[in-house]
Known about the structure:
- The protein is an alpha+beta fold and 373 residues long.
- Helices cover 46% and strands 17% of the residues.
- The strands form three sheets. Strands 1, 2, 3, 4, 6 and 7 form a six-stranded antiparallel β-sheet that branches. Strands 5-11-10-8 form a four-stranded mixed β-sheet.
- The N and C termini lie far apart (47 Å).
Amino acid sequence: MAPLEPAEEDAIPMQLLQQLSRTAYVCSSLSSPLSSRPRNLVYRGILAQPIRTPDGVTVQSIIIKHSTDFVPKIFEELLLHALASYLPPATTATVKPPRLYLYDRETNIQVLEDFSNADGFLAMLSCADAHNLLPSPSTATIGRHLGFWLRSFHVWSSAPEQAALRAQMWQNDPMRKTKYLFTYDSVLKVLENYPELMDGHEKTLDTIRDVIAKEFERPSTEEGDGYGLLHGDFWSGNAGWREPPLADKTNELFIIDWEFAQFGHRSCDLGQIVGDLYERKTYGNLDTAIFTMEGVIDGYGALSDEMAFRTAIYVGVHLISWYNRRPRKGPKVAPPEVIVAGLTAGRDFMVKGWEKDRAFFQGSALGSLFAAR
């Protein structure tokens, strides 16, 4: 679907203010878009009057998500309501998704908890002063919190109590198809730009693509080992960090943007966050990302061979699909030799993961996926 015309997008804030005026979440103003995928916009709304939320907290601002594609976000709604009652195991940080206060299916408007005074983890990780911004805990510790929470979420979502939720989430076909389109299905198309990287590997890569395509059609009644509910877009840009104002309170991590939630293989979640962090080292030479990546793997805990190899394959997919997301101009443009090296690493992770070549990975940057625990 084509992006909105500028005039259409400019008119949306006033429309949202008018629609919110008929709810308990009347706003005096909206921010500029915080993020915007085509036809999906996110704003921060300043409430006309502070309100007390259903869980007893007084808030002065909210997050408004609005989709103009007229595809109802009922699966995101279902999962966020279910997660509201989920209490992950206690650690030294509180990790949680936003509460969904209101969802109007007719207008596709979501009103969500605003994690005010939180810093985007990606921005913190990427800045030149990251070590000073994150003196305690370190980026590795935050990575461990992310990994531990992800494992806890996967365990919770696989419990018998969530069987009905899984059955409904499986029907979120548009997001599954989109996920496949931008990941596994993009690999050969990218590598066609570098035919020398395909030499001797095209058959294996073709097989991976076709086998995984069938997996993306797998219903939740065929759960099996490694399958369950996924966040669906688990990367550093969807995490926020807040240190408490009081010494006796715990740090907080926030996991946002659940619209890609779906049923699938858990390696897609773990592989995306590991791949995202490794990508930042590979193409951007961001050393702090490696410490965080190791923390995520350590926090997620012991992996079966199948999960380790599948995660490595997904990391390879992520490194290759970066080509379609790469900066085209400015200081973050990667040199040609860096691009080729990154695509080569991605290809090798995919091929060696498919061949289950443990010796290769034990000497690679992904060796900790295969470490004995």
